[in-house]
């Protein structure tokens, strides 16, 4: 059977080695775009090229074709990085995985399970706090329960109760019992649906995010000059989600016109990523550059890259997730994010390396910039939006810089001594 | 002279149960179900105690309470706040707004009656 995942393993090994795609491509004498196709398993690889890539990555070719070990080692590295108060012997990682593959597999599996559970806790906590549909449903259930409890206690505890009052309370009790049954059923249906198919009805921002995710945040038709209005939005249910998506696609189209894909690709091939240089080269503002970078196809930037946009109130308007950097779905993110610092210093580009506490101690380079929304009349006070590009850092040790500690949101942040804390965390330290 | 309580609650069956319980305790109970004009209703009713729901149509109980406490003659009025949202943050918000007692739905009748008795006793002593 032909192995179809060799490319993915090359990518994984390259990232572990801290090599950029362009660097590895240069070392083995192929173009970065061809390596990108290989890494996405769109080109078969074997023979001399496989041997050369393995050599550049200092692994045996069989590691790339078999892959199990690389995947396992990567998972164990993540487990070691996430551990709190326990330092793993990283030097002996490969030996451990080789000698005890079963135990190593169990450890990796447990770590994946912990990550998955933590994500569930974050999502549910976030939703319980901010999901308007869920909040309204819970309010309905609790209010009805309060009426039933109070009325039932009156009927049970009152020795002598006038017949007209008794009849009225019986009627109220019946009404409230019906209401409670309906609202409970509606709540359960909502939770079932949102868990099973990812459909989070009633929250248009989630639909927008899901739509962009499904398209990998890249729209070929718009890249080739198509209009944002022509993008098929039929899979979006609500008018609100369609309208919001249309707005974000219009911004996408304007950014794509200002920074055409092939020109961006050429600029990135010539020099390491520098948003300020790109802004100067394309004569656009920094916000346009940051948004545009987040829409590039996989491989252009060499590392996973996310984006988050907020308005002047701090509400998150749009986000593109990046593995390891949790973004609360409904706002109320960590106030220490450079995204919010930029709001305090409009028009000043901010670059900061951060480690997000909580699920994983992954490190990211963040570029943030706040810019004013266009005004419609003279002397109008500017209203700012802020954008932050979040780019994972592959090898922190090779590029030591000061790293600021930030959280996802206070509710799921384990940092116990933070002067910016808004509310207690639901996680115990070291969760 | 009878004691008067104003109950601002938009759930009619909760309002009815509370009205029944407090009437039996000797209170004169007035009810109102809107948030928008609540401040004016409180002024006109001039109650000895206010029971205030948080989620009200027109204006939230939290806003009403903040506005109420800005009025010089309403700063001592005991306010019992009822809410289905019992998170620490909501409780703190209510305390900052000047609530006298905060009670989470669903509450027991005896709990509510005890709170009313306590608040009234404190108000008459001071």
Number of structural units classed as domains of chain B: 1
CATH superfamily of chain B: Response regulator
What top-tier CATH class of the largest domain in chain A fits best?
A: Alpha Beta
Roughly how much helix do the residues of chain A carry, as a percent range?
A: 40-55%
Class by SSE composition of chain B: alpha/beta
* Distinct helical segment count of chain B: 5
Globally, the shape of chain A reads globular
What is the terminal-to-terminal distance of chain A?
42 Å
How do the strands of the widest beta sheet of chain A line up side by side?
2-1-5-4-3-6
Q: What can you see in these coordinates?
A:
Chain A is an alpha+beta fold and 431 residues long. Chain A is built from 17 helices and six strands. Chain A has helices at 6-17, 21-28, 32-39, 47-56, 61-66, 68-82, 93-99, 101-130, 132-157, 163-197, 204-214, 220-223, 239-258, 261-270, 275-282, 286-293, 338-344, and strands at residues 305-311, 316-320, 350-356, 363-372, 384-392, 404-406. In chain A, strands 2-1-5-4-3-6 form a six-stranded mixed β-sheet, with helices on both faces. In chain A, helix 2 crosses helix 3 (32-39), helix 6 packs across helix 7 and helix 11 crosses helix 13 (239-258). The two termini of chain A are 42 Å apart. With 126 residues, chain B is of the alpha/beta class. Chain B has a single domain (3-125), classed as Rossmann fold, CATH 3.40.50.2300. Chain B is 45% helix and 21% strand. In chain B, strands 2-1-3-4-5 form a five-stranded parallel β-sheet, sandwiched between helices. The mean pLDDT of chain B is 90. At the A-B interface, helix 9 and helix 10 of A face helix 1 of B.
């Amino acid at each position: 059977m032909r192995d179809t995942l060799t490319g993915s393993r090359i990518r994984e090994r390259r990232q572990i080695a801290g090599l950029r795609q362009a660097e590895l491509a240069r070392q083995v004498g192929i173009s970065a775009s061809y390596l990108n196709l290989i890494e996405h398993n769109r080109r078969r690889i074997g023979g001399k090229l496989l041997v050369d890539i393995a050599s550049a990555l200092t692994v045996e070719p069989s590691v790339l074709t078999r892959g199990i070990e690389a995947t396992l080692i990567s998972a164990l590295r993540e487990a070691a990085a996430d551990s709190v108060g326990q330092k793993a012997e990283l030097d002996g990682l490969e030996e451990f995985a080789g000698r005890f593959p079963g135990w190593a597999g169990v450890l990796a599996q447990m770590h994946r399970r912990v990550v998955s559970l933590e994500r569930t806790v974050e999502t549910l906590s976030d939703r319980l706090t901010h999901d308007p549909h869920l909040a309204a449903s819970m309010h309905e259930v609790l209010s009805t329960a309060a009426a039933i409890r109070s009325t039932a206690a009156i009927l049970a505890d009152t020795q002598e109760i006038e017949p007209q009052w008794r009849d009225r309370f019986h009627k109220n009790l019946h009404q409230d019992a019906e209401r409670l049954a309906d609202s409970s059923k509606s709540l359960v249906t909502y939770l079932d649906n949102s868990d099973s198919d990812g459909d989070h009805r009633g929250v248009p921002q989630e639909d927008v995010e899901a739509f962009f995710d499904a398209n990998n945040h890249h729209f070929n038709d718009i890249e080739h000059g198509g209009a944002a209005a022509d993008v098929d939005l039929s899979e979006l249910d609500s008018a609100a989600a369609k309208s919001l998506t249309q707005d974000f696609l219009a911004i996408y189209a304007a950014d794509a016109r200002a920074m055409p894909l092939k020109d961006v690709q050429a600029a990135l091939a010539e020099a390491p990523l520098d948003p300020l240089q790109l802004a100067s080269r394309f004569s656009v503002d920094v916000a346009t550059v940051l948004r545009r970078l987040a829409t590039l196809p996989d491989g252009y930037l060499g590392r996973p890259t996310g984006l988050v946009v907020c308005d002047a109130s701090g509400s998150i308007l749009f986000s593109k997730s990046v593995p390891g950097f949790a973004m609360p779905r409904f706002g109320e993110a960590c106030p220490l994010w450079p995204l919010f610092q930029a709001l305090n210093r409009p028009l000043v580009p901010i670059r900061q390396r951060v480690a997000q506490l909580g699920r994983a101690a992954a490190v990211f380079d963040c570029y943030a910039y706040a810019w004013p929304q266009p005004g419609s009349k003279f002397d109008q006070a500017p209203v700012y939006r802020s954008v932050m590009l979040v780019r994972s850092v592959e090898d922190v040790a090779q590029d030591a810089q000061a790293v600021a500690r930030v959280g996802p949101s206070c509710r799921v942040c384990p940092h116990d001594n933070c002067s910016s804390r808004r509310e207690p965390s639901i996680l115990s330290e070291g969760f | 002279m009878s004691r008067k309580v104003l109950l601002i609650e938009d759930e009619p069956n909760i309002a009815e149960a509370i009205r029944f319980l407090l009437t039996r305790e000797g209170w004169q109970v007035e009810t109102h179900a809107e948030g928008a004009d609540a401040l004016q209703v409180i002024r006109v009713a001039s109650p000895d105690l206010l029971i205030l729901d948080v989620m009200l149509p027109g204006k939230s109980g939290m806003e009403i309470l903040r506005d109420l406490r800005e009025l010089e003659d309403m700063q001592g009025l005991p306010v019992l706040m009822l809410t289905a949202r019992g998170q620490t943050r909501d409780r703190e918000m209510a305390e900052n707004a000047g609530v006298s007692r905060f009670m989470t739905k669903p509450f027991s009748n005896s709990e509510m009656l005890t709170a009313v008795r306590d608040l009234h006793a404190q108000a008459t002593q001071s």
